[in-house]
Sequence to fold (1333 residues):
Amino acid sequence: MRCAIDTGGTFTDLALEHEGEVRIFKTSTTPEDPIRGILEVLALAAQGLGMERAELLSKIEMLIHGTTRATNAVLTGNTAKTALITTMGHRDVLLLREGGRGRAFDWSVEYTDAYIPRALTYEAPERIDAQGRVLRELDEPATIAILDEIAACEVEAVAVCLLWSIVNPAHEQRIGELLAERLPGVPYTLSHALNPTLREYRRASSTAIDASLKPLMTRYLSNLEQALTDAGFGGELLVISTAGGLMHAREAAKVPITSINSGPAMAPVAGRHFAAADPGAQHAIVADTGGTSYDVSVVRDGRIPMTRETWLGEPLTGHITGFPAVDVKSIGAGGGSIAWIDDGGLLHVGPQSAGADPGPACYGRGGERPTVTDACLTLGYLDAERFLGGAMKLDEGRARAAIDRDVARPLGLDTHEAASAILALATEHMVQAITEITVDAGIDPRGAVLIGGGGAAGLNSGGIMRRLGARALVIPETGAVLSAVGALMADLSADFSAACFTSSEHFDGERVDAVLDELRERCRAFATQVGAQSHRVELIAEARLARQVWQIDVPLRAERFAGDEGAMQILLEDFRRLHEEIFAVLDEHSAVEIVALRTRVVCPLDSTSEGRLTQAAQELEAQRDAFFPGHGLLPTSVRSLDTIDQGTAIAGPAIVESPLTTVVVEPGSSAERRPGIGLLVTLENTLEQEGGRADAGTVNG
Amino acid sequence: MQAPSTAESPVHAGQRSFDPVALAVITSRIQGIVRRMTNTLFRTARSSVLNTARDFSCAVVTREHEMLATAESLPIHVMAGPDLVSASLARLHPELHAGDAFLHNSPYHGNSHAGDHCLLVPIVSAGEHHFTAVVKAHMADIGNSMPTTLWANARDVYNEGALIFPGVKVQRDYQDIPDIIEMCRTRIRVPDVWYADYIGMVGAARIGERELLALGEDLGWDTLHAYTGAWFDYSEEMMAAAIRKMPAGRSVAQNKHDPLPVAGAEDGVPVKVTVDVDPENARVRIDLRENPDCMPCGINLTEATSRTAAMIGVFNSLPTTVPQNAGSFRRLDVLIRENCIAGIPVHPASCSTATTGVADRVANATQRAIAELADGFGMAETGTLTASVADISGKDPRHADSPFVNLIIIGLTCGAGHARGDGWLVSGEVGDGGLMMRDSTEVDELLYPIVVWADEIVADSGGPGRHRGAPACYVEYGPADTEIEAMWSTDGYVHAALGARGGYPGAPARQFLRRADGSVEPLPGWGEQLLKPGETVLATSAAGAGYGRPWERALERVERDVADGWVSPEQAEEAYGVVIRDGELDAEATAARRAELAAQSPEPPEILEVEHRSREISDRLGPYVLGTVPPQ
Fold:
């Protein structure tokens, strides 16, 4: 039996796969002690299966965990006391960052402190240049003096990031040896080993974040393993990685930066599976709607694009992880987003959120301001009696009153129009987030299928599909716990990268092959270590035009390059096609440079889950009035997902409910239930217009 | 690619004036288009001034030449300028066709300065011109007589020497016009890099064109034009609401640009700004007419930067955030005159540094004037551009001595204390609004044969105040195995950023040359220097000034500044009245010292002289930079 538990900010989700069936459970997260929430959701699952928790745990062979523990620790500053060692003269690398900010003239925001304060930053007398030559030898006596000073400060972790260590790591390695001698037992991270990427700020930031999480995540994962063992678990504990793979918990504790944003990294893995419902779609857009955030990712021709630009906090002014991660764009939009009117009479939705507490006005917990959830209730999309499977009663009067007061009256609209405007604007924000991650990367949403995950996805994903012109919308039956379900489908994997500079003008096929061999060897070692039956290796080149400084990921089609002119030509063609696709232009005369090579080793787990959801059927009212823009209030049939026969199309307007989701089928669209998938919603004739674009890569630094 | 359809988008729902939801939705879509334009040039450009420092801007202008959307653009590039170049284009090219693109950098036809090349693409659908997509980029080189794009000492436009394009067609039917490209290639240094950057600009503008055409087809051009009117009205109302919250009155502020070797500028160039805030009628008037006539040097402002600098000062002082477009600008009256250093230049006056220098002085005086009207408003003065932003050129021995030229942008720290908080640390000057990015040491060293030895903030240099100015940045760089020519035009060497409401000035800029023999000698505020192997430039930027009296600064902020090395215990006691001994706050002594300061209420010093702090860094790094660390 396999089980995935994703601890999110609000909910702890569990998905369990047993004999081809999937069961899903949800409980509140317990932020002060997340392990308690994990044990609670396991108890809930055991109850649902009619057994004791210990019995359930004893049957689980593999438990996969995603957690916001690391992310929260960074955002709240609850990480280890960490020292940073930089190159002499560059102590402010974490403070100065790369500059820039979101908006000019918004002086209500303050500059964010450096991730590690200046007082704990030390400068190693050493210098290596861009060619890897040693300009100044590492001054060992001075370095030892620094380490003794660090030891005296009782730091709990040390990050080392020197200029150009990616080209010549000798000085970082030597400092690592000295650290092991002088500060035994204090964990440290060396930048070239963790994240060999150009640009000192982002490398220093990844290194600092990683080191600062080591004590915490080591403790957390070992406590979790102990707590699970005590509760009867005897299987393997795996942790979801930010790159969209799985790692053994003990390995993950050594590279804790990989657990940042790890939950959302699984959404596209699940999305890739559900996209099969529309075989004509070239790409999938995967959206996960939470209470306070909306996460979007894409699956591009079956591949999940990566980024090195994940920020904790605001882009440019927060802290960058700089670490290869599944490209997930997250915006502050969800059921809790507050609607308000500004001085000029313009409607806004968010970025303020009512969160879970006090929550939307209709929760009746003291929230006064109208939210997207209040709008959905007012429009008749949500059932006041059956919210979250009946766990909470909603107060429609409070929702209407808040919308009337804050939106309808100021704009001279009636309540339904105002509620509809709130939802339309929230939808637009979500559409913009999707546009940025698709159109910016050369993906045409019209060739894509939209996967709507998260409990609230069904309320407006039809509108998002319509606005994007996407081919179809899939609301997975397990979409309420999309990341946890994705984790059940994921493979063991690891990513390795190495700098490898060569140019199309003087292409060094031997060197490329040598680096690829070394990376493949690391992949094989990983596969052996995890005891994989089989494994496959994906190869990627990070390439750019000469003198550019930002790379594009180009999947390699050839295995070897030495003495094979054709292999290089294919690589060049692939690069040029991608460049033109993403940026609309190409400087054809320019040489192409390869900067780094990356590999991902994937070790498939024996039983990839494709199980379908099992859940109890429910009785529902047959009809209620719901408001649709352009139509007004329409009598709308309400169906339970379980009572819909496969292959029967349901024409909108209709509402389809299951215990954890509500799907609004707008007039002019229709829904069909697909086995093992969920609901497939389409506009009239959409799937007859075939289209799509060729494969493309992603942009990173 | 076409934008997806919106069969039932709320745009078509109500048309009382303009559907407020559609207003928000279309705004979001147009901002998205400008962001996509920006992303394209940032990712594809070759010069670090564009691909790392992001010294460029993208914008959309209406067919009536009104600024519509700017996204993450630098304020000094776009508030006024794109509107003026669009209007001048219409005069020179009455007929605009799909597939056209125009090159524009003329300071006499609405551009910011010759160093910013604008690429203008008219958005033409079915023969009708609807909008203009504008990409404005600070080029690594423009073919000046000297290898710099910011040259305060240029006598006139002839001496400056750039090719001037007053809106010249450079593409027809989406293809380059070869003779224009060849003109550039024969005049601009390192033509291949220029051309590659130009291609990136074309890409950005064409992406804007493609997306705007799709938007127009999707919504209908009439709807889109109705939208722009409604968006301007809305923005104007937001601006009016903000001005109504401001204090009424007239305020005059003066400051000085640093001296130049030009008659009348030996002691510096005085700048005077008169601001009238009229909350009742919700208008702000900024009068720049009482400034000197154009001078025979490169500091004269263009019409675009004169207007923009004044507007920046106002926007920095608004109590709420207001969209920046032609609508909100309607509430501002900027009074300028011809032949004035802060007005409309008369050919052949040189405007080489028109986006910095005097522009910074005008914006700074404007926001400081507003600060002096009432507590809780305005901003102190931001530091100005220094030698850590320099044009470097030479030959790269790593690439068969191929030539290079570029503007390096390091050490940008200069934000001013303001009504709501401390100075924003990373900012190049008041005109970038904190949006400009800075170089990465590794990217600079990868692209150019230089070594950046140091890049760190300088203790005590930020102007003390209730809200402290950002500290200066100490930068040290030099050539790697070769010679390089460095040119810079510093302002802020003599006349530092001035504090507001009792805040202290920021520390002035300082720069030195470290010789290979270890000797250190001062460098002038403006100049050019051939750097030989082993030599380095030491540049300390001009820090931001403080807002409000320093002894009123929150205690815990002073303590934090001291603990983290931003402020020394000496300055904490002297200026802030906070006594910290051995890392511990002495509460009693602090109370006494603060009472004493409050009673005396000393005037801010004329100069915040903390050169010794830069020297401490320089002395500490010296043996390391010179490679003479004795074996231990």
The CA atoms of residues 308 and 323 of chain A lie 5 Å apart. Confidence is low (pLDDT under 50) at residues 686-701 of chain A. Chain A has 17 helices and 36 strands.
